[in-house]
Amino acid sequence: MNFLPTLRELNINFTRKIFLRYASESTIFNLSSGYGKCGVSVIRVSGPQTRDTLRAIVSKNFVPKDRYATLRSLYHPVTNEMIDKGLVIWFPGPNSFTGEDSCEFQVHGSLAVVEAMFDALGSIPGLRLSQPGEFTKRSFFAGKLDLTEVEGLADLIHAETEAQRKQALLQSTGSLSKVYKNWRERLIKCVAHMEAYIDFAEDENIEDDLLEKLKTELLSLRENIQNHLNDHRQGEILRHGVRTTIIGAPNVGKSSFLNLMCQRKVSIVTPIAGTTRDVIESFHNICGYPVLFADTAGLRTLTDDVVEKEGISRAKDRIGKSDLLLLIVDATELSKRKITNKAFFEGFKEQYLKELGITTDLLSETSLLVILNKVDLISSEDLEKLKNLDVALVSCLTTKMENLFQKMEDKLKYICSQPTADNPRLTNSRYRQELISCSNYITVFLDNYTTNPNQDLAIAAQTLRKAVKCIEKITGNVSTDDILDVVFRDFCIGK
Ligand SMILES: Nc1nc2c(ncn2[C@@H]2O[C@H](COP(=O)(O)OP(=O)(O)O)[C@@H](O)[C@H]2O)c(=O)[nH]1
Ligand SMILES: [Mg+2]
């Protein structure tokens, strides 16, 4: 039996088709790294005129060696004035980043040199400055990267912490792409089998248990997708930053804690209860994880102040949107109540949260770390006893932080997890939406198939094709200009 027509039809490399449509005559250039007062600036050129560009800038007889750095004098093609001496590298297509002929000029990093180079390149007819993301877009259309790799690359460029860098690097080098490609191929096979069944059901050569096998495969595939989706949004949180809210009663030192983390006076600190009213945010790299701290109004149930009430309402709203809550408690409160063992402490925590008006539904999806502040006010004996509890001990006044970073790192690791090449994390809500739809189409197929064996098989096959489309929208195998616009919009110029 020949499945080839179906497979070929589904497997058309749309990307290449689009590339042919998009491939322009234009050669683009831009600064890809370094700017003003940097040691080196790298200016990249890509497109059909790259070889001519090298001749125009270096010399008429210049014969570049593939992927080999050579030190050359660089000239303005109109004035023939020497601009700089720098390294020139020639990357012939198709084995270049963009798939086209490209080259790099590594010049001295001053603004004046870069401007003179831009003027020189701009004077060559047919050359123009690239748009943000245009080099990567060409790479995508040349089939060098799929959309998940493109988005991983954008994340790598924007990564602010070590954990984000690791996740982005894995994605940009194809870890997610591999998973989604595999699911797409498995689904395509299912469609092909389904169509074979429709076409050749009467044929005696068809395997009897073809539909049974199909069902087993789709159940297993759906389970893989579900497991990938049930990730507590770890990859997305790491990508966007862990929303961390500092909460507690008035005057326990919440604002002092934010200032200590930021090493500057972001939030106003006074001994007057109810000083902080708005939610004050500040982004920080904590142990390699991106943390978006929010200082909030002190929580108390008894207040008539309208502004403070609004502050408390904003704080609660923020609690509901947090990934991590830092509950600041005055350490003297615990030593006063003689709470030194774990069981008592758990009871205290529950009661204390209730007193603050924090209900369990607000906490359901959120991790909580208790931070005992003002340890400078308790005896060293009491401090020793508090060390038995699962808390971080700090003094914002003396800046003493016993075990704070270890405790924070444990929580952050748990919230973001450690992505690995074998188990890459879902990092993007766009992928989540498409995978949910994909899984739903598989469910529709399985439900209809199992409950109604007489269903229209052509419609069933169509449902599976829709499931394939969902995955193709993630990786960019289909022509969806609206998705491409969103993906490339956030790239920086020169990449
Ligand atoms: N002794 C002591 N006082 C502190 C400490 N942290 C904050 N305070 C004081 O507690 C008061 C309330 O601090 P603030 O940060 O405004 O508390 P918030 O209302 O929870 O934001 C201020 O007078 C701070 O100087 C600490 O570690 N030790
Ligand atoms: Mg405050």
Bound small-molecule species: guanosine-5'-diphosphate, magnesium ion
Mean pLDDT: 86
In spatial order, strands of the major sheet run 8-9-7-10-11-12-13
Total strands: the figure is 13
Estimated helix fraction: 40-55%
Low-pLDDT runs: 1-23
CATH architecture of the largest domain: 3-Layer(aba) Sandwich
Strand content: 15-25%
* Structural class based on helices, strands and sheet pairing: alpha/beta
Tally of helical segments: 20
**Name of the CATH homologous superfamily of the largest domain:** P-loop containing nucleotide triphosphate hydrolases
Sketch the major β-sheet.
7 strands, mixed
Stated plainly, the CATH topology of the largest domain is called Rossmann fold
Distance from N terminus to C terminus (CA atoms, Å) equals: 47 Å
Number of domains: 3
* Overall geometric form: flat
Q: Any idea of the CATH class of the largest domain?
A: Alpha Beta
Radius of gyration: 30 Å
What does this structure look like?
The structure is a single chain. The chain is α/β, with parallel strands linked by helices. It folds into three domains: 14-144, Probable tRNA modification gtpase trme, domain 1 (Gyrase A, domain 2); 170-231 and 423-489, tRNA modification GTPase MnmE domain 2 (Four Helix Bundle (Hemerythrin (Met), subunit A)), CATH 1.20.120.430; 237-416, Rossmann fold (3-Layer(aba) Sandwich), CATH 3.40.50.300. 48% of the residues lie in helices and 17% in strands. The protein has 20 helices and 13 strands. It has helices spanning 4-11, 14-22, 50-57, 111-122, 134-141, 147-158, 162-172, 175-200, 210-229, 234-240, 254-262, 306-320, 331-336, 342-355, 360-363, 380-386, 404-416, 429-451, 457-475, 481-489; strands at residues 27-33, 38-46, 70-75, 82-91, 102-109, 127-129, 242-248, 280-286, 289-295, 324-330, 367-373, 392-395, 400-401. The strands form two sheets. Strands 8-9-7-10-11-12-13 form a seven-stranded mixed beta sheet, with helices on both faces. The protein has a six-stranded mixed beta sheet with strand order 3-4-5-2-1-6. A hairpin with a 6-residue loop joins strand 3 (70-75) and strand 4. Helix 1 packs antiparallel against helix 8 (175-200), helix 6 packs antiparallel against helix 7 and helix 8 (175-200) runs antiparallel to helix 9. The longest helix has 26 residues, at 175-200. The chain is flat. 39% of the residues are buried. Residues 1-23 have low confidence and may be disordered. It binds guanosine-5'-diphosphate and magnesium ion. Magnesium ion binds at residues 254-255, 267, 275-276, 295. Guanosine-5'-diphosphate binds at residues 248, 250-256, 269-271, 275-276, 298, 373-374, 376-377, 395-397.
